[in-house]
Write a structure and sequence with these properties.
Blueprint: H1 21-30, H2 32-35, H3 124-132, H4 135-161, E1 165-167, E2 182-189, H5 197-203, E3 213-221, E4 226-230, E5 236-239, E6 243-246, H6 250-267, E7 273-277, H7 279-288, E8 292-294, E9 300-302, E10 307-309, E11 314-316, H8 318-326, H9 335-353, H10 356-360, H11 362-375, E12 376-379, H12 384-394, E13 402-406, H13 419-430
Amino acid sequence: MAPPDNDRPGSGSSGTPGQGSSGAQGSSGGFGWLYGKDGAAEPPPPAPRGRPQPDQPEATRVMPVQPRPDGAPPPRTAPRGSSVTPGRPSPAPAPGGAAGSGGTPPPPPPPGGGGSGGSGGSGVGGWFARRLRRPRFYVRTVLLVLLLWVVYTVAVPFVTWSTSEQVAFEPDGDRPAEQDGTTYLLVGNDSRAGLTAEQRKQLSTGNPDVNLTDTIMLLHTGSGPNVLLSVPRDTEVDMPGYGTSKINSAYARGGAPLLVEVLENETGIRIDEYVQIGLGGVADVVDAVGGIEVCPVERIKDKAAGLNIKKGCQTVDGTTALAYSRSRKQSALGDLERVRRQREVVSAVGTAVLSPWTVINPVRWYRLNKAVPTFFTFGEGMSSVGAAKWALAMTRVDGTQGLTCTVPVTDGSATTWDRDRADPLFGAIADDDTDRITDDQCTPNGVRP
């Protein structure tokens, strides 16, 4: 027989403090099993050990949220360490099995094919491809090319011209005082030394023992127009130690110092620098610049000089240019016409040297400067900068930017100078006041107009 209800533990009639009817009622709601009440439900099954399922997160790891006013359920919060994004369904595994771990498909390759050699890779090819897409790459490349070109253009003359031979040219004894401006003596030596038999035949130079200066020019630069003045080779002068002789024999007898002494005594002009050109130098320089334009005023056929050229302007090579500047027997004025053609060739070479194509073309620029030390000789003390100044001055005597003259002579024989016109011309150069030179004093062949 079961005991009455009031005799059971927790009965309200037992008078036990803290246990009234309300306590029994509360115990029978869900915890009756704990008090041994009849009909109580079995205890809930224990929670499975291990990691909580994604849809049932552990209660201690879920942060409480405030209920929303509209009654919508709060978003689910993924437990710490879970790879599931809250509010998003997990991706379905790829058909046929997953390529990666956990059934997640591999990420798509980057654009461009990827890989170390592709344009979008991280290798050398990809790095270079990315550089090509940047505007700064092209700007820097252009600047680098320009810098290298400037260095090359400046360095080549300094390197090649520094190897040129230098000779003493200043005479002993009294000389004219220092003068304003700069006066260069340009000598075309007719020496065949250094030329092979084949070269002498090609250039029609003849006797290899000849050592005369058939080209003698004074180039003055200063405050006024540049002046290129030719001295006729047959001029008779007082030559110290040799009496009266033709001026072109001074070099063969006493070298550059004797020639400078004779010219300074006859003109009163102090010579500051000396430049000597061999026969082969003219041909090489002309060929290096791609030829020059000359304008013969008549047809010339000179077998001795190896020249056969028609009348009118035309482009000629080095061999023809040299023959054109040496020929004298087929012209009525002889040597006076020859010195005019020599100045024409010099001016044409200067124009070609300064043409943009000569400077821009690295091959032509190198050939031009390489020809200098082979056939050019400078006076002692001539620096590379001084040689460059001389070369630049030679480009400014083409008749439009400077004056080209022949020493005034009394007649076509060119043996005697016309002192009435020659001395004022010499004085203007010595005073560096070339603006006062008149047309009567400066003529192409030295004959009074």
